[in-house]
Design goal:
- By secondary structure, the chain is of the alpha/beta class.
- It has a single domain, classed as Vaccinia Virus protein VP39 (Rossmann fold, 3-Layer(aba) Sandwich), CATH 3.40.50.150.
- Helices cover 33% and strands 26% of the residues.
- A 7-stranded mixed beta sheet has the order 3-2-1-7-8-10-9. Strands 4-6-5 form a 3-stranded mixed beta sheet.
- The protein is globular.
- The chain starts with a helix and ends in a 7-residue tail after the last strand.
């Protein structure tokens, strides 16, 4: 074990590992993932809720209404139990995508995904984010947190294609690089986001935030 640690110490970090390390350092200093202009009247979409820690942190700071979307039943049950006395946090046992479907999610703890197959899987429900917004008469989302292990491309395409970007003040996105043509798809989406939003921080394939331009704010 000691030899492995010594060897690891002298292995040069990849560009991605350096980006991860830089993001972690900056996030500790500046609370990048929590530093938003939110209050008790704000609405947050936490897409890929996992066990609910991100929602808990945001709620303790700002007291917003939070919609948590989590397709895995085990995590949904844990989140519901965690927030059972909090009527401002609503939990939905389905994922968000660009269309309604039944699919399989493959287990990998907080990296569970629809796209990297393994022997452990669970059938889950997916809903179109644009349909959910329209069916629930939502006209403003103050923060959309999007960390869904490759599914972000379809969600963002749906928002862009249906012209819904201008109702979202902040988009906190983790793009993932394991899908085919991931970098090309990311750049295409970023170019479209740039028409309505601007970058407030960006760590490639780690985490980034896009804030609505004042000229596009219809609220």
């Amino acid at each position: 074990m000691i030899i492995k640690k010594i060897i690891k110490k002298f292995i040069p970090k990849s560009g991605f590992e350096k980006t991860v390390a830089k993001f972690k350092e900056d996030n500790r200093k500046h609370d990048l993932m929590l530093n938003y202009d939110l209050n008790e009247n704000s609405l947050v979409f936490d897409v890929g809720g996992y066990k609910g820690q991100g929602a808990s942190d945001l709620f303790s700071m700002y007291l917003p209404t939070i919609y948590i979307f989590e397709p895995r039943a085990e995590y949904t049950q844990a989140i519901e139990k965690r927030f059972k006395k909090n009527n401002k946090i609503k939990v939905f046992n389905f994922g968000l995508s660009n269309k309604k479907s039944d699919n399989y999610i493959y287990f990998n703890d907080d990296g569970s995904t629809l796209f990297l197959k393994n022997s452990q899987k669970e059938k889950v429900k997916m809903e179109s984010i644009s349909d959910f917004i329209k069916n629930n008469n939502i006209n403003k989302i103050d923060l959309l947190k999007l960390n869904i292990e490759g599914g972000e491309y379809e969600v963002l395409d749906d928002l862009i294609n249906l012209g819904l970007l201008n109702i979202i003040t902040n988009l906190q996105i983790q793009f993932h690089n394991f899908l085919p043509n991931a970098k090309k798809r990311m750049f295409e989406i970023q170019n479209k986001l740039g028409k309505t939003h601007h970058i407030t921080y960006q760590y490639e394939f780690v985490m980034e935030n896009w804030q609505l331009n004042k000229t596009n704010d219809n609220n």
